[in-house]
Amino acid sequence: MTRRDLLKTAALAAPAGWAARPATRAAALQWFQSARYGLFLHYTLASLFRRGKEDVKDRNIDWKQVQKRFTAEKFDADLITSLAQEAGMRYVNLTTRHIGDMCLFRTSQSDFTSLNSPAKRDLVGELAEACHKKGLGLFLYCPPDVARTDPPHLARNHAQLRELLTQYGPVAGIWLDGIAYYYRNPELYTRLGETFALIRSLQRQCLISFKNGATGDEDFLAPEHFLRPAKGTPPALWEKLRRKPVEECTTIQTNPKAWINDEDATHMTADGVLANLKQRLDLRHNLLLNIGLRGDGSVHPADVRALRESGARAAKLIALSREDSQE
Asked: What is the torsional sign of CA 105, 198, 210, 326?
């Protein structure tokens, strides 16, 4: 069989669009492992600052005042999802809340939301609609405090998870951040099993990750940049965790800590994107590649160029990877 034949065969084995909605958790996990490649979107009030996180760290910021500048006038869910498709990606993950603590979704638990900003928009809802229309899986990033189960966090967190999983149609996964906090203060997470059970009761196909892993009941690991145990992970637990599917997240800005857009940062070229993708595919890991949206919600032109220019070659790499995994 020629290389071209291999590509054709592997392409046929590509996962169905998420619009098919896997009926079970096992089917969803199989879909996820075959998807290989996703787009991470960091968008937050800190995106309104030129240097992003660099401009707000160690400062006492009045986020209510910053919210008054949040218009998101160039946030275009249709463009973002089309770009993900052109890049060869099968799913998208958006920060539902991040630095500045403003929710990008409709919630009864806070009035500090994008709907109450000048934007007056439910950005999670817009992205969900675009993902469902195009058959892309929708993952929802939740900040570190959402995994906490101590009072009063438990009631609020469960209420917001319920909102995320009942307002926006089928969700491919809940992506919990903050694993370092878990191992630093495990007494604040003693009811994490209830949180996982709630998610699965609301949408049985919804996958769960908690970064490098906490309980062993996560569906996949989602470490930053490369796979390793979080500090404090018991060796016996790590032996169980490291057998799970892996999604490595990294950022298209060449500073590995620059998840939020930094106007002074350099960005990967198409070749850099492909090198990062191949590295993960060789390990049979997924790649979740982050772009930090600019303050107005637009995608940085360098990122548009890199993703579009790498798309056809990325699709070939992924097709070959699927073929190799079937041998």
From this structure: negative
